[in-house]
Design brief:
globular; mRNA 3'-UTR AU-rich region binding; 10 helices; ER; alpha/beta; 365 residues; quinone reductase (NADPH) activity; Quinone Oxidoreductase, Chain A, domain 1; 2 domains
């Protein structure tokens, strides 16, 4: 991918070194990123100008300004790739265009704005945060969801686990009081979130039954801590779950797949069980009748999003510390399955959408 020429007809555009400086528009959203007279570094940044396929991803040079109150400027060393990026690119989760993509990264803090006290210039840091904009060499962003990174965790490892690891943390600890000895059904158990969930469950004495699309992926899930894993292409996973639980069903289903797995997953739950829907990898879930939940055993249903939990600064920092403790203790081992250079971001998106990945995927800088 070459660095694109990005032109937007608008009054007030200035051109320097062949690049457009747009006073009140930024790929990071509707905020003023006009460059001041100091004109800090240019940063290669991946943007989209409209919703669509992977071909809509464009790599542009973009100016990075100084942080304002409550903000930091961070120089990225690696950034993560997640399905939420695909949802934003396709328009399932709409953005105001043009907009940068990417929700997680790790790097070094270059400057902090007024009021930022938990970070300082020179600190190692990592985040899963809004607004999107992590597919970049550097950016200015709100500081509240950026977390100090322990020296014992590499930038690549941190970039690969912030969004996925904090997702697992909240699924296991913030939504429903899971306890040792309970049983969870986790779909896509060999993906990035899934492999972390397998390890997390094992570390806390929770029985995790996974699903995956190949025998090889099932083996990978079990190597990472799943008690059992069902190849959903070869088997009826509802029948298999019932057999594995002596007909009782599971306490909780954690479903990031969505449309293809949601309805049968309800039949895997025991009475009073909890259905946690947290993703739409196969498409959005159709509307659900409350009477269906009643008829299947007074089931509970929640559609959660990570960023609701991260919106509170103290809770976000606590979740990150919990995740980092798991990694540093060895309970969680990071599995980076794929690395793509930033200029191959379109290929990375195609691999993720085609379910050709295992573990986490990162973009290297």
């Amino acid at each position: 991918m070459r660095i694109a020429d990005w032109e937007i007809p608008s009054a007030g555009i200035a051109f320097r070194r062949g690049l457009a400086f747009i006073p009140r528009q930024s790929p990071h959203g509707d905020r003023d990123h006009a460059m001041n007279e100091r004109e800090h570094d240019m940063a290669r940044t991946v943007i989209i100008e409209k919703a669509g396929g992977a071909d809509e991803l464009k790599l542009v040079d973009w100016p990075v300004g100084e942080p304002g109150p409550g903000e930091i400027r961070i120089r990225h060393m690696a950034c993560g790739l997640n399905f939420i990026d695909v949802y934003q690119r396709t328009g399932l989760y709409p953005l105001a265009y043009p907009h940068a993509l990417g929700m997680e990264a790790a790097g070094i803090v270059e400057a902090v704005g007024e009021g930022v006290t938990h970070l300082k210039a020179g600190d190692r840091a990592a985040y899963a945060a809004t607004p999107p904009g992590a597919y970049a060499e550097a950016r200015v962003m709100p500081a509240s969801q950026v977390c100090p990174l322990p020296d014992g965790i590499s930038f690549e490892d941190a970039a690969s686990i912030m969004l996925q690891g904090m997702t697992v943390e909240y699924l296991f600890h913030r939504v429903w009081p899971l306890e040792a000895g309970q049983t969870v059904l986790f779909h896509a158990a060999a993906g990035g979130v899934g492999l972390l969930a397998c390890q997390w469950a094992r570390s806390e004495g929770i029985r995790l039954i996974g699903t995956a699309g190949t025998d090889e992926k099932c083996r990978l899930a079990m190597e990472n801590g799943a008690s059992a894993c069902i190849n959903y292409r070869d088997s009826d996973f509802v029948a298999e779950v019932k057999a594995l639980t002596d007909g009782k069903g599971v306490d909780v289903v954690m479903d990031g797949v969505g449309k293809d797995t949601f309805a049968p997953s309800l039949d895997c739950l025991k009475p009073l069980g909890m259905m946690m829907s947290f993703g739409n990898a196969s498409g959005p879930v159709d509307p659900v009748s409350l009477l269906t939940l009643a008829a299947k055993g007074s089931l509970k249903l929640t559609r959660t999003t990570l960023f609701t939990f991260l919106a509170d600064h103290a809770r976000c920092q606590d979740m990150a510390r919990h995740l980092f403790d798991k990694v540093e203790s060895g309970a969680i081992k990071v599995n980076i399955g794929q690395r793509f250079p930033l200029d191959q971001v379109a290929e990375a998106h195609r691999a993720l959408e085609g379910r050709q990945t295992t573990g986490s995927t990162i973009l290297t800088l």
